[in-house]
Amino acid sequence: MEQTKKLFSQKPSSYWRNSTEMPTYPALEKDLDTDVLVIGAGIAGITTAYELTKRGRSVVLIEGRELISGTTGYTTSKLTAQHDIIYHGLIERYGEETAKQYFRANLQAINYVKDTAAEHGIDCEFEEQEAYVYTQLDEGVETIEKEVEAYRKLQIDGYLADTMPLEIPIKAAAVMRQQAQFHPVKYLIGLLKEIELRGGSIYEQTLAVSFDTESRPVVHTENGHTITANHVVSATHFPVQVENQYFSSNMNPKNSYGIAIKSKKPYPDGMYISLESPKRSIRSLKKGDDHYVLVGGESHVTGDGSSVLDRYERIYQFAEEQFGVEELYEHWSSHDLLTTDQLPFIGKASDDAPGIYTATGFGKWGLSNGVAAATLLADLIDGKDNEFAELYKIGREMEEAEAVSIGEDDVNRISNETVVKPDNLPNGKGAILEKDGQTMAYYRDEKGELHEMSASCTHNGCPVSWNNADHTWDCSCHGSRFTAVGEVVEGPALRALDRE
Ligand SMILES: Cc1cc2nc3c(=O)[nH]c(=O)nc-3n(C[C@H](O)[C@H](O)[C@H](O)COP(=O)(O)OP(=O)(O)OC[C@H]3O[C@@H](n4cnc5c(N)ncnc54)[C@H](O)[C@@H]3O)c2cc1C
Ligand code: FES
């Protein structure tokens, strides 16, 4: 236990990024004028840029940090239309036609990745797999049965099972055939090459910080340049392009975790996710003849102040019991944005900002939905009809997301267990403490130097909380994350935490 705690205290790193040679691109050093500007190099942005260059458009793709360093670099990478339990609910809420469309959009996305990888010879470890959502409780059986009934109504190729190839005792499982898993970073690097071959330009370390939307959109970058475009696609995870309360009101950020282990037991085929919480999401990883397994889960509201170290530990215990851990290979975490009706937002960002498009709210299923976004956005830019435009429409009426209520007590719960003043703060730890009536974030680095910052997120002022495993300050409102010394790791925040 102590040993794994120590391992999980080390800096997390992504299996996907570490198992790939990452290309580098320059930062933007001049002003540009282009047809389409795509902001954000995750699956949604890169696929959109690829699709548009393929259609003959002139495209510039900018990334604020490193390529594929957002959620796409830290995912589980199941490429599936089985999004946990969703189809029964979609039928109830929106009817069979909408539910069918959602399935079709995601099935087409799987085929898009398969065909694109084959067309360009991209070795992205694409493998067809059956996808299972399982329950271990009697109370869960009805939910699974209803989902399988929804499969039948929607003509989804699937079935009800009472056992699985993976030896977990279950009460029932909904199984979807012909789903897939792949290596997202290898795939997307293949697309980046194709974007360049078709004349597209790619820039890293080029953060978009503000937008003028009066005539043609003009995007200002942190390093002092402008990019003027006919169309701008903001694929920045949480949209950063325009003030739009709609996104804040209708989405919540949720973190989850992954570990890659070398298993003592052979792994059967299949991708698995539990119906019950704590969630467990399982798939194999391809590494020569060895059996590597990715185990994920422990979903929770980002920045809720709970102990992230304990979450990694619980996933590890599950992996140990299930597979026997021969080696812990990597551990990582990330967050995604969940809408209240489980459908993403893809399309024109707002009526007030012509020429600006966005794709967000993928609800932890953004690998297929992010690919669906690319063809939908390319059609909108081309002025073509797209059968999924209404399904994903931004501005549709929906129940507002329950406000995430993270009070100061929650924020302080972990960080302040023993700390009452900055002097008590041990090396390598962070804490939220009061100073002159203000809430401050303190971090003492490994050399003993104390860093003092405001605990207000620079996006919209919500309180940040200390993440005791990843050593970040996390914001519960829209998911911004900051390094221990306050630099932005992940937006929508664009500025570091304030210092006096
Ligand atoms: C632990 C975990 C497991 C998951 N597993 C699965 C799964 O198995 N299957 C599945 O389908 N989905 C899964 N998801 C969800 C999926 O990974 C995400 O929905 C998807 O990767 C989001 O892609 P994106 O392109 O929208 O965002 P990102 O990948 O976050 O890309 C956005 C990019 O924009 C950049 N950016 C942000 N702001 C700016 C700016 N101002 N200027 C320039 N660049 C900027 C960021 O640096 C980033 O690189 C999982 C999510 C998590 C957290
Ligand atoms: S991310 Fe919006 S206030 Fe912190």
TrEMBL record:
UniProt name for this protein: Rieske domain-containing protein
Superkingdom of source: Bacteria
Record bears the keyword Iron-sulfur: yes
Domain Rieske positions: 417-500
UniProt xrefs under Pfam families: DAO, Rieske
Keywords, comma-separated and alphabetical: 2Fe-2S, Iron, Iron-sulfur, Metal-binding
Gene3D superfamilies: D-Amino Acid Oxidase, subunit A, domain 2 (3.30.9.10), FAD/NAD(P)-binding domain (3.50.50.60), Rieske [2Fe-2S] iron-sulphur domain (2.102.10.10)
Iron-sulfur among keywords: yes
